[in-house]
């Protein structure tokens, strides 16, 4: 019996489906046993990936970690494990850039188990009008009610900044990898966020996305969060109010719903012995049976496109998937160079402080670009 250790993140969406899949009789019959352990969401976002790969065979990671992982030489590439033809087939079946986001330096480094991006979350039972589709409508609702929250804790202030820039037509660091965003676009984004932050309810100021959504389900002081990572569990909760999820706001009608890709992938560490049984299990997790049936049935959030458009899945989960699929298809993929993770956390702290102090855009944007440049790798792909 081959016994492997896996590490995922501590939330039903991150753990339940993997743990249930490891209990399937077919796995034991193939001579494989996988024990999944959990770490807090904050550790998932920031813990050094090389350290985790030294201790675990399978590691659930976020795509911005791949540059760091490559620098640490700690993951096996999917092409080497499964072959490039299989990787291309998985990419064709995956929604948006779910698999492509794990490509760095000419190879793919994780299987897209779970797909997510920032979307709009609302208590539609409390909204005074229709769900806002444009950023100007979000601002109007904020000024009218004082009950619109920004997700700013942890890395999320920076992630929201990136998303809004993409909505305004300038996906950060895409035109020039050395420039995060132009002064003109940066000022528009900063001023918008600063205005919304000044009225964002204090009750959720220090909460991560899970905390914000949990608060919205149980309290009435936040009726909308325009950018928060979608968690399908809150669309059909066991208790509290259901939250409805919608495409992220756009700058103009018909424009791009600005959103920064999240989700998770399964990386195979260098210490792992890849057997035919393991390959079969991992490919089963990517296949239709698991993605359309097993994973949604066990609190997971699938990455396969057809699951997001499946009528039965949407009926069970309050149309979460079909309401947000367009945002995921167009989601912005963050830089993935070694050093990006550190930038993301420090940039968020910089933005939170600037919003709290009411600092003007110019100085804050200069500091943001200087910080980005200091973490930018000397060379290589993004």
Primary descriptors:
382 residues; alpha+beta; D-Maltodextrin-Binding Protein, domain 2; 3-stranded antiparallel beta sheet; 10 strands; 45% helix; disordered C terminus
**Cα-atom radius of gyration:** 20 Å
- Which descriptor suits the 3D outline? globular
Mean pLDDT: 94
Which fold name corresponds to the CATH topology of the largest domain?
D-Maltodextrin-Binding Protein, domain 2
Instruction: Label the CATH architecture of the largest domain.
Output: 3-Layer(aba) Sandwich
What is the domain total for the residues? Answer: 2
Give the number of DSSP strands. Answer: 10
Please, how many helices? Answer: 18
Derived structural class:
alpha+beta
Could you state the order of secondary-structure elements as H and E? EHHEHHEHHHEEEEHHHHEEEHHHHHHH
Spatial separation of the terminal alpha carbons: 40 Å
CATH superfamily of the largest domain: Periplasmic binding protein-like II
Percent helix: 40-55%
Looking at the chains present, what oligomeric state does this protein adopt?
single chain
Q: In the CATH hierarchy, what is the class of the largest domain? A: Alpha Beta
Poorly predicted segments = 378-382
Query: Which strand order spans the largest sheet, edge to edge or round the barrel?
Result: 2-1-3-10-6
Main beta sheet, described?
5 strands, mixed
